[in-house]
Design a protein that fits this description.
141 residues, alpha+beta, 16% helix, 52% strand, elongated
Length: 141
């Protein structure tokens, strides 16, 4: 009798885990892939770098990154985005001041758009501070 009770408790204890595992999507379906959309480099006093491109399908987590040879440099960053979803299109844009190394997520006009056209530029704020800048746009899909 004790043996039957132990089996019953084991089945009752495992049942919620089995139900949860079968209800969850497969791990393969939920894996996101990081892509470097575009990048540029520039040098000189007040170096300005401009880059942009079109994402692949269903982009999420679009980021702008700004690197300098010497972290801690002041930069001005501006960005624009146009995303399409179905027959509609939405835009977002903005700018901010930052200190390198910058890693900023850009807000999208739609959740899971079909694609987005993204551009970003950054400019060194202080002349002579390293004199080199790189801007990179990344996204996940």
């Amino acid at each position: 009798m004790k043996f039957v009770r132990r089996i019953a408790f084991a089945v009752i204890g495992i049942a919620p885990l089995v139900a949860l595992a079968t209800a969850m999507p497969s791990a393969h379906a939920s894996v996101l892939h990081r892509h470097v959309l575009s990048h540029c480099t520039a040098s000189g006093d007040f170096a300005t770098c401009v880059t942009g491109a079109t994402t692949g399908g269903n982009p999420t987590n679009i980021h702008v990154h700004v690197f300098t040879r010497t972290p801690g440099q002041h930069v001005f960053v501006a960005w624009d985005m146009v995303c399409a979803k179905g027959s509609g299109a939405g835009t977002r844009s903005g700018s901010f001041n930052g200190i390198t190394t910058v890693n900023r997520r850009l807000p999208q006009p739609y959740l899971y758009p079909n694609y987005c056209i993204v551009s970003a530029d950054a400019q060194l704020s202080n002349p002579g501070e390293g004199r080199w800048i790189e801007v990179q746009i990344t996204y996940w899909d």
